[in-house]
Design a protein that fits this description.
elongated; 2 domains; mainly alpha; 13 helices; Endonuclease III, domain 1
Length: about 200
């Protein structure tokens, strides 16, 4: 499957930009392996906690949160523990977002089985209704948790800027990504891999 999609991506990229074609060719087929092992609410909390941080900083802060919470993360994420969460390194806004996510989870509103059959737009509307959960988080959860193949995360700076550099800053990335439907999530994976790839 990855090989067939890769071949189609090469054909599509050829008509868009030699640089994009070369980048995709160099990376080879990209595996798409979502991970839904953790509860959805926990994944959402971790995603929000790590926003705009380096991987190392995000991992450190999340480690402190889980250590402070012990076994019952959702039960720990309540207003009386806001000070403890701030002491873990979370901002006031992120603390508030985690409390909102946990409250929704405890109320039964974040059941993965309920959200999985929804379209990305429907799922995003449900998730972004929570305080502090933005479109970027909804995109990441749809891609990496629910395994939605056709999400272009235009709010992700690395994916968007990389696609711009490989095509043209004058061309809307949403329009470019649309050429790769129904596998736009894989296009994002290619862009992230390109950023991380060693220089030629």
């Amino acid at each position: 499957m990855s090989e067939a999609i890769h071949a189609r991506f090469l054909d599509t990229a050829l008509g868009l930009s030699p640089a994009l074609h070369a980048a995709i060719a160099r990376l080879g087929p990209v595996d798409f392996v979502p991970d839904a092992t953790a509860p959805l609410a926990e994944r959402l909390c971790r995603s929000v906690a790590g926003q705009q941080l380096s991987v190392i900083a995000a991992r450190t802060i999340w480690g402190r949160v889980t250590a402070a919470a012990g076994e019952g993360l959702m039960d720990f994420l309540v207003e009386p523990n806001a000070g403890a969460l701030r002491a873990c390194g979370l901002s006031g806004a992120k603390t508030r977002a985690l409390l909102a996510i946990a409250a929704e989870a405890r109320a039964g509103g974040l059941e993965a089985a309920e959200l999985a059959p929804l379209s990305h737009a429907e799922r995003s509307a449900r998730l972004t209704a929570l305080w502090g959960v933005g479109q970027w988080t909804a995109d990441m959860v749809s891609i990496f948790y629910f395994g939605d193949e056709d999400v272009w995360p235009d709010g992700d700076v690395a994916a968007r800027k990389t696609l711009e550099r490989l095509t043209s800053p004058r061309r809307k990335t949403v329009r470019t990504a649309a050429r790769f439907a129904p596998h736009r999530s894989r296009l994002a994976l290619y862009m992230w891999r390109h950023v991380d790839a060693p220089p030629v």
